[in-house]
Amino acid sequence: MMVLAVENLAATAGSTHRRIDRKVLDAMRKVPRHLLVPQEVRAEAYQNRPLPIGYEATISQPYIVALMTDLLDVEPGHKVLEVGTGSGYQAAILSGLVNRVHSIEIVEPLAKRAGEQLAALGYRNVTVRAGDGYAGWPEQAPFDRIIVTAGADHVPRPLMDQLRPGGRMVIPVGEGGDLQLTVIDKSRKGRISKRRVLPVYFVPLTRKASSGG
Ligand code: SAH
């Protein structure tokens, strides 16, 4: 039902984006969204709207998840970094599309819950850790793709540095809460190009005081 809603929305969203790729919709169809959200909101898991997952975090509405996954333009051999694990829903979708997913969540209990739930559901190529994703995951860099699922007022420099030449980042970015879903490409020679796709709403990318920045 939900994927149908996503397809319908995608078909009418021509002014902002092409149709969502079939393989993205197939990957979404396989993920049990209700098992990744907290018990209290399970009944609403298959509606096309954002859901609260505790600790002031929300999963985006499925259409935005679909659009971001589609824009990421992943290939099966890719290694992907996600900043903002939240429920683990986006990570689970990516799990079926790429080789490895590394996901960072700043709220420890969310990181713990998502990591445990993803493991219990058998998503073996996803690794979750608690930490400030602004700094990326240097030990695992470089990444073919980076997806940021919290709103940033600028593109974190460490993430740009950890993006492989020829790689792509999808990130909601803007000042004063005026976020634009943005696609950033790094050419093989390291040249950066940016494209704004759509105004969006996301919870803010927060910083740990201890991270020094
Ligand atoms: N992708 C998630 C939804 C993310 S909501 C899903 O599929 O469920 C945004 C998440 O980003 C929240 O859980 C929030 O705690 C987290 N976040 C905010 N700032 C962060 C940071 N600096 N590093 C890592 N995670 C962060």
From TrEMBL:
<keyword id="KW-0808">Transferase</keyword>
<feature type="active site">
    <location>
        <position position="60"/>
    </location>
</feature>
<keyword id="KW-0489">Methyltransferase</keyword>
<comment type="similarity">
    <text>Belongs to the methyltransferase superfamily. L-isoaspartyl/D-aspartyl protein methyltransferase family.</text>
</comment>
<dbReference type="InterPro" id="IPR029063">
    <property type="entry name" value="SAM-dependent_MTases_sf"/>
</dbReference>
<dbReference type="GO" id="GO:0030091">
    <property type="term" value="P:protein repair"/>
</dbReference>
<dbReference type="GO" id="GO:0032259">
    <property type="term" value="P:methylation"/>
</dbReference>
<protein>
    <recommendedName>
        <fullName>Protein-L-isoaspartate O-methyltransferase</fullName>
        <ecNumber>2.1.1.77</ecNumber>
    </recommendedName>
</protein>
<comment type="function">
    <text>Catalyzes the methyl esterification of L-isoaspartyl residues in peptides and proteins that result from spontaneous decomposition of normal L-aspartyl and L-asparaginyl residues. It plays a role in the repair and/or degradation of damaged proteins.</text>
</comment>
<dbReference type="GO" id="GO:0004719">
    <property type="term" value="F:protein-L-isoaspartate (D-aspartate) O-methyltransferase activity"/>
</dbReference>
<keyword id="KW-0963">Cytoplasm</keyword>
<dbReference type="Pfam" id="PF01135">
    <property type="entry name" value="PCMT"/>
</dbReference>
<dbReference type="GO" id="GO:0005737">
    <property type="term" value="C:cytoplasm"/>
</dbReference>
<keyword id="KW-0949">S-adenosyl-L-methionine</keyword>
<dbReference type="InterPro" id="IPR000682">
    <property type="entry name" value="PCMT"/>
</dbReference>
